[in-house]
Description:
The protein contains five helices and four strands, in the order αααααββββ.
Amino acid sequence: xxxxxxxxxxxxxxxxxxxxxxxxxxxxxxxxxxxxxxxxxxxxxxxxxxxxxxxxxxxxxxxxxxxxxxxxxxxxxxxxxxxxxxxxxxxxxxxxxxxxxxxxxxxxxxxxxxxxxxxxxxxxxxxxxxxxxxx
Length: 135
């Protein structure tokens, strides 16, 4: 009986770990797709990955794109963009991204994403700091 209970517990841990990995992969896919849309200057595609609250603040793709270009230049244009640590809690995922900007300077971005009612993840925010700066 103990072996059966142990096997059930192990299968629950592995299935939840696999689900978490799937969620993180989905969130990273959203971030990567938005990054690629920025590279193509495709404001509509980039905007489509923003959560409803972001879309309320920036009510049109061109307004959103202008904000990214002026306030998030390392996200908009960069030499490298690599995923770091991720954390998940409930329907939320936080994903760190290590960025080297167009001038060769290092940055840390922290993206937050929330799973929507349709099951897809949308970006709820992005905090950007020069690497080495305290939070």
